[in-house]
Amino acid sequence: MNKHISDTTKIELEIPVFETPACQALTGNVFDLISDYYHHQREHSSLNKILLDDTIRQLLSKRKYSRVLDVGCGIGTYCRMLKSYSSEIIGLDTNNKMLDFARSRKDGILYINQDFLTIEEDRKYDLIIFSLILDHVENFQTYLVKAREILSCKGKVFCVIPNPVKDSCFQHDEFGCMLTSYFIEARQKKYRRNEKNQIFCEIFSFKRTLSTYLNASIAAGLSLTNIVEPRHPDINHPAHHVPYFTILEFLNERR
Ligand SMILES: C[S@@+](CC[C@H](N)C(=O)[O-])C[C@H]1O[C@@H](n2cnc3c(N)ncnc32)[C@H](O)[C@@H]1O
Fold first, then answer.
1. What is the predicted pLDDT for the residue at 19?
2. 17 backbone dihedrals φ, ψ, rounded to 5°
3. Tens digits of per-residue pLDDT, 125-158?
4. Less CB within 10 Å around the terminal CB: N or C of the chain?
5. Which residue lies with its CA nearest to atom 25 of ligand 1?
């Protein structure tokens, strides 16, 4: 079977909806809406599990860490994954429902309800994870600068972001397929779907180009060491043809 995209390959992607910068801020904590889904599906049947978890386990298990901070840890998926590779893991999140679900696993990990930007640290971390959080915050550069400040020398920042190509619009015509909105940087409305492909909530995130993420990381003093675009194993799944996520690994090479 031809594993490459051919002219006849049918790619079905959601067309993203962009909001003007002046659009209304969301009231309430939108992560309440997805916490139930995370609790029940994230580690069982979700697309995130299929696309990310084995790859992330492989990448993170290459070395041992003495102190890990998982920023926006959600239900603690990556904290638990790191248990055999680290002596101290802290999961940080601002959503109580997510943290309740994380704590209900009784995994012995310390989960703290605090905004990352407000933490004060004397000791350094040698791994800081930002999985699917930087796209939800407007001032993501501040997060990278703060991460660099509390990172040990040779410490690692591990980021998962939505793939900027997947988040852009495709136009199909008889001559093929064209990407039409890669350079648009805006707040974007997305729909979260369950494993039956039914929409269960709307969520806003910030659509940015890859160079925006990379240049901000470089400006924060981090060096890119690895970039991975996980691929769905099923050739019939759109994520086999277009990356849904990008994993970025950075090293702090300065003292
Ligand atoms: C899409 S979820 C991702 C959860 C988890 N990292 C994962 O990949 O499964 C984003 C999480 O980031 C949390 N979050 C957003 N802003 C935060 C902040 N400033 N500090 C700590 N957590 C934050 C949200 O409450 C939410 O649980």
1. 53
2. -105, 125
3. 999 999 999 999 999 999 999 999 999 999 999 9
4. N
5. 95
Residues 105, 209: Cα–Cα separation, whole Å: 36
pLDDT of residue 194: 74
pLDDT at 67: 97
What would you measure as the largest C-alpha separation in the chain, in angstroms?
60
DSSP code of 238?
G
Q: What is the pLDDT of residue 21?
A: 41
- For the Cβ of 92 lying below 6 angstroms from any atom of ligand 1, the answer is yes
pTM (2 decimals)? 0.89
Which parts of the chain have pLDDT scores under 50?
1-15, 20-28
Q: Is the CB of 147 under 6 A from ligand 1?
A: no
pLDDT, position 255: 66
Distances (CA, A) of 150 to 5, 62, 104, 155, 161: 43, 22, 29, 9, 21
How far apart (Å, rounded) are the C-alpha atoms in residues 87 and 177?
A: 49
| 71 touches ligand 1 (CB under 6 Å) | yes
Q: Collapsing DSSP states into helix, strand and coil, what is residue 229? A: coil
The answer to whether residues 186 and 19 touch, using CB atoms and an 8 Å cutoff, is yes
Q: What domains, with CATH codes, occur in the chain?
A: 26-164+209-251 (3.40.50.150)
Nearest Cα to 250, choosing from 161, 148, 164?
A: 148
